[in-house]
């Protein structure tokens, strides 16, 4: 091999390779170079690798061991939740004041919901519930289920609800008497000793 700048060359020129040709065939220890084919190490190792600083750098054993030791052991994988959702949580998840983002719209009632979903539901609530200030009206009959309606004021209009006090006072003012006649105690006496009578005057 003719070293750089060692011309003219003496001897058999058929056995001479120039510096430029040498750079095309061999890797320079000083200049480096790029491989054109894979390297077969034939069972030998590559020694003295530094710690990698880029993703495409070769790694030495120390770097790999440190990375593996910082990861979970395969025997402990049951304690971790997989990203594909095939394993479920076994305890409460503390978000430590962090957010859960990119939630889809809920389908089942037990699913987490987004702020937009809650806002939409809240905006729709006035049409489903009776407003306490009287700004909305009923859309169906109200079943009190045997409970009272209390603190009803005296009615002003003919279609207003009336309280008992108001009804009693109106009956008293009109001097309305009961429509049924008082019961006659003698009505329930038997005609003879072999008969008996009920309140409905059924004789046997």
3D structure, described in words:
With 204 residues, the protein is mainly alpha-helical. Helices cover 18% and strands 0% of the residues. It contains 4 helices and no strands. It has helices spanning 19-25, 61-69, 115-124, 164-174. The radius of gyration is 50 Å and the shape is rod-shaped.
Give me the number of helical elements. 4
Report low-confidence residues grouped into runs of 5 or more: none
Anisotropy-based shape = rod-shaped
Mean pLDDT: 79
Describe the protein's topology:
Layout: H1 19-25, H2 61-69, H3 115-124, H4 164-174
Please give a handful of descriptors for the protein shown:
204 residues, mainly alpha, 4 helices, 0% strand, rod-shaped
């Amino acid at each position: 091999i003719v070293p750089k700048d060692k011309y003219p060359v003496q001897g058999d020129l058929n056995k001479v390779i120039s510096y430029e040709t040498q750079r095309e065939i061999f890797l320079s220890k000083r200049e480096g170079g790029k491989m054109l084919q894979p390297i077969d190490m034939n069972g030998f190792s590559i020694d003295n690798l530094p710690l990698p600083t880029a993703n495409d750098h070769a790694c030495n054993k120390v770097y790999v061991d440190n990375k593996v030791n910082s990861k979970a052991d395969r025997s402990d994988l049951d304690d971790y939740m997989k990203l594909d959702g095939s394993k479920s949580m076994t305890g409460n998840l503390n978000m430590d004041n962090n957010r859960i983002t990119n939630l889809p719209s809920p389908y089942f009632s037990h699913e987490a919901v987004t702020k937009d979903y809650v806002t939409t539901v809240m905006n729709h609530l006035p049409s489903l519930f009776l407003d306490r200030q009287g700004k909305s009206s009923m859309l169906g009959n109200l079943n009190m289920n045997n409970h009272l309606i209390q603190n009803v004021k005296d009615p002003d209009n003919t279609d207003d609800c009336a309280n008992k006090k108001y009804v009693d006072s109106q009956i008293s003012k009109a001097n309305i008497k009961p429509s049924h006649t008082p019961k006659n105690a003698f009505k329930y006496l038997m005609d003879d000793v072999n008969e008996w009578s009920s309140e409905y005057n059924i004789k046997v």
